[in-house]
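Supplementary material to the annual report.
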Amino acid sequence: VPSKLGPHSYGKSRIRLTKVKRLPDRHELVELTVNITLHGAPFRRSYTHGDNTGLIATDSMRNTVYVLAKDHPIDSPDAFALHLAEHFVITYPHVQSAHVGIEQHGWRRIEVGGAPHPTAFASAGNEVRRAGASVSRDGHFPRLPSGFPASLTAGLDNLLVLKTTDSAFTGFVRDEYTTLPETTDRILATNVAAGWTYNHPRLDFNAAFDRARATLLTTFANHKSLAVQQTLYDMGDAVLAADPDVFDIHIRMPNKHRVPFNFEPFNKEFANDVYITTDEPSGEISASIQRE
Amino acid sequence: VPSKLGPHSYGKSRIRLTKVKRLPDRHELVELTVNITLHGAPFRRSYTHGDNTGLIATDSMRNTVYVLAKDHPIDSPDAFALHLAEHFVITYPHVQSAHVGIEQHGWRRIEVGGAPHPTAFASAGNEVRRAGASVSRDGHFPRLPSGFPASLTAGLDNLLVLKTTDSAFTGFVRDEYTTLPETTDRILATNVAAGWTYNHPRLDFNAAFDRARATLLTTFANHKSLAVQQTLYDMGDAVLAADPDVFDIHIRMPNKHRVPFNFEPFNKEFANDVYITTDEPSGEISASIQRE
Amino acid sequence: VPSKLGPHSYGKSRIRLTKVKRLPDRHELVELTVNITLHGAPFRRSYTHGDNTGLIATDSMRNTVYVLAKDHPIDSPDAFALHLAEHFVITYPHVQSAHVGIEQHGWRRIEVGGAPHPTAFASAGNEVRRAGASVSRDGHFPRLPSGFPASLTAGLDNLLVLKTTDSAFTGFVRDEYTTLPETTDRILATNVAAGWTYNHPRLDFNAAFDRARATLLTTFANHKSLAVQQTLYDMGDAVLAADPDVFDIHIRMPNKHRVPFNFEPFNKEFANDVYITTDEPSGEISASIQRE
Amino acid sequence: VPSKLGPHSYGKSRIRLTKVKRLPDRHELVELTVNITLHGAPFRRSYTHGDNTGLIATDSMRNTVYVLAKDHPIDSPDAFALHLAEHFVITYPHVQSAHVGIEQHGWRRIEVGGAPHPTAFASAGNEVRRAGASVSRDGHFPRLPSGFPASLTAGLDNLLVLKTTDSAFTGFVRDEYTTLPETTDRILATNVAAGWTYNHPRLDFNAAFDRARATLLTTFANHKSLAVQQTLYDMGDAVLAADPDVFDIHIRMPNKHRVPFNFEPFNKEFANDVYITTDEPSGEISASIQRE
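Predicted assembly:
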């Protein structure tokens, strides 16, 4: 059959790593999930001929993550992602580009007697910080000291937020399929996923992440929302305004509806007080916000 | 066939409720998942004869939760559970006992400019606070003002904690099935589930819960662990010591292993630094700790 | 603090095993998840003193599962559970009793050209077959050839079934909290979990399981249901009638509601045709059915 | 801040529908999860100005699914997706394009006495059939009778398959990061996700889906695999060869490793018999296969 190989990728996903940094007065704890994807011309023949010459086993990618984690400080997931991606391009001349995506799982120090404990931690929840690094053999991205061009993304996922007021939804189409009443005061709950790209790979990744996250949260909290779309746009716009190093941002904000309970059969009135929590169906709102 | 009905129960689970309390200067947010179980002789005939006389539809239980939530302050999940359970016993003379279990999902105020926002919240994570109330028509439990005996439980689930040191595991059986080395310094990570019973239903539920949770965390953090079992026991023991209103406690602490990465093939040495995060298999440790 | 250790247990959960049996003309595939719990007086001191003398590391339990799986035929999960539980009681004189619970994950042969393939398989879905064996040092259960008493349970979980008719729900309490209309024809959908005990450990486990499962399914399909409770009872009753080796059975059947879509605003009529699929809230119905 | 709206979309996800078709001799059961996305210039102003003029509420999209499901036969998810997408473009002149994605959840008739029951069903498992339809106001795709161009995709997800032999993995890079031994006989287990596009929207969707699925399964089962990549490629190639109506196909096959148990410490030998079942980390292999 006259078929051909189109876009393809291979790699290793869900490599889970815990690293403890043993400082004199306290330990630091880092927990990451790493995903690696490699591209390169020789990998085509695994698909087309079952010829694995040049193929780096995904098990070896996994080993590499743990081995490199030993000597790298992992001060930020971004720096470690960059280090890993660069490693693959430097080590294997036939690797055209490497992408490393990292999820960092948050831990907070347990408070004991009002003070943070030096070696005991509790999970900070489901929210995930993301970092992504792509290093190529050539291309138009800013170059690393090693000479290879690199592009960087960062983001967060599962940031579950809710505002109890300052959210309206009016003016939409009313026709034979419409039963939703207009409202000038509803709950807005959403599970924010945001991803942004940096203009270059030389920045204080933790400061940039903290700034973006704080800006997203502050804008969400203070927003007088006329639509989830508007809130989303203003959140993205605020991140671009807050940090010139952020090139663009993509945000997804599914609308996790809180449905007013119908008190009519019970001779009571809904007073923006008691809602049914639902997961589905959910509104799906997403957009990229870019610099002009 | 000569068969008979043994122990049975019916009710409604996963009733999800969001309540907003609109105070002058801020809103308060409560999110609960409610489970209800009713017992009573007439319910037997639904099983044995399909005769639903006296059966309270589980859909009506659901309605009841939302209707009662409107007028109840829900200052604590415990108080609301008690209120709901009592409601069923008072309202339906043929209900012998009612059990209400509530999970409270935590929300924290979003910080804006260093101050907690009055109407915007972020999820506090996966951890769940539990409250359970059983109200019976008769029995030996302490009685409510209404005259009905009530028993109360409280607890938490999904409290994911980790300590990077002060955990040893030595002295266990070494035989032909043993490959685990002894260790005097390992990571101890676990997902604590704890449930305790109160001696009576007249206490400050939030203060009691906070005390128990803080005691569990502090003991976990400070413990010099010779076995997960020992840490678990001492955590339960500390809760009993801290609060005479707690009658007994049950704790489950699955061992979420962090496995030392084997650096041998790479000519490096494991230095309690780089671990493989795993979910399975997991050690399963649980126990009740009781007063003498 | 004058506290004491109450009921406690320890063991290993989620030990996942794939075994291939290489027969001359085909391979057989078995996939199990094994959970092990051990009891014994010496284990108390791990809790109370951090003294692990006599403790069998849960990691060694894991090793034992794989090592014993090599030589055991694993013709049924029940036989392997029994073998494992007996192993722990025989091998360790201080083990008072051992419980092994096994979930078997189903695989079907892929059909190629109308014939089952000898070495390729597709998952049979989420449904899980369960087997449980408890072997004690003493007790009143029937004894194994080794002389140790044993008790056996079996069951299934995640058997998701739905009938489109022959399900009514009428005659229940109508009061101020009731909005659910009576119906003589609704969808009944449920996720059956059933567990039963055997009278003795010497039976054809696969035949007994297949008989119980087929009986549950047939009774569910043919039942003229007046309540989920009644369907559940009749399903359990039928299993007891079909197999004298089954001592009793416990069934849980959460009501996974299909809610009639309200066509009124659209000038159409619901004709038992279009339903909203929901997961929550769900009715919770469970019962044990026993021999007289 | 000089920012602008980039690519954006909005819609409703996870609309869950159960439809019963009441034929004289039996019922037919269809269960779908529907996702809808609409595009159009007026929707921009919701983002940029909170102006919802022209916005079709996602709640109205949900209503539309149920209302249209009543009169449509839903003989295939593809036909219903096309019908829904076309509806939005026809009904709302300002909608530029509509995309509808449907997941169909399989149900099999329960066998009673060897015959399929007319009104009782059991879940066919986790595997999901997918259909996607995009209808635009203009574009180069083949046109529907209504004159609107349409593009169609189909696929499946969660097709969990395993072959116990005929899978090798040799010849890959051996360097300082490599510990994986070469093997000429291993288990290959994967959770296939495949999506393909059709050349035009006028075909027997069910026959085309069944042909593609059977071809994927047959090729997987019979393949002498030198790499997961090769098996994937040959599966896609076979689908293109089997159906000229399929334009291209994308397949993702994560490698769900079965890891040989290390019997060395136990003086036994691994004989391709006992494996550890793992979920993570997993190899990630994906590719598009296209016509020349």
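Chain C has a mean pLDDT of 97.
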